[in-house]
Write a structure and sequence with these properties.
about 260 residues, Beta Polymerase, domain 2, single chain, 8 helices, two-stranded antiparallel ribbon, seven-stranded mixed beta sheet
Amino acid sequence: MEEDFSKYNGEGTTLRKAQLRMLEILVEVDKICRKHNIPYWLDSGTLLGAVRHGGFIPWDDDMDIAMLKKDYLKLRKFLLLELPPDMVFLDWKNERYFGHVFGRVIDKNSYLIRPVRTFQIQENGIFFDIFPLEQVAFFRLKKIIDYFYGRFYRRLHGFGNSKFEYAISLIFYPLALSMTWFAKFLALFFGKNKLTHSFGGCRVVKPRYKSDIFPLSKLNFENKEFFVPGNYHSYLTLLYGDYMRMPPVEKRASHELKFCFYEK
């Protein structure tokens, strides 16, 4: 007997309304990517939702895509110019206190209440994240370096309120930055097939391989077609293991966001 997931995101629920708003953002980003021939793919829980549920994971309250960093740098220019007026694009280049090295398209007709507010940005609506991925020589080395670099970077960009941690980060950030340069140099020789989030972009280092991603394929997500890794089975297995197994109720985690909507 199939499980009834309507208790999470049944029609008319606040979560379902938020998910559909995220889908609107994805449609706009997909349109811009296709227009400018910029490859992307559904990532993480969004990809898992496409494969296992044909759409959102019922309890999921965010959405992710990924792309190569060189493509991300192209896309951000078009997003700043071509998004509809009720959406705004932010990242570490145009919002000092964003605190992360990835991009976020934010809906202007909503507002989020978070359990913990760790940094201040100019928009705080329902969001959609775009993760730039780059080559890495060794996943373990990336994890070690990013533990320090990511922590220092976030403290210097408004993440957290400790003046002591800010001062420590100010002192040691240049050293951590030089370590990232060394790691990127190694990646030129040993990282042709290995991808991970940019330094400072994500605290969890999960292996991804170009050979699993390209050439891209397509899958239906909420009755619309979007790009996914060509070998999404291998991709998801690396991220989640037995990804088709439904987690027990107590492990169905979300970000515990509360959504408020403005009238359009």
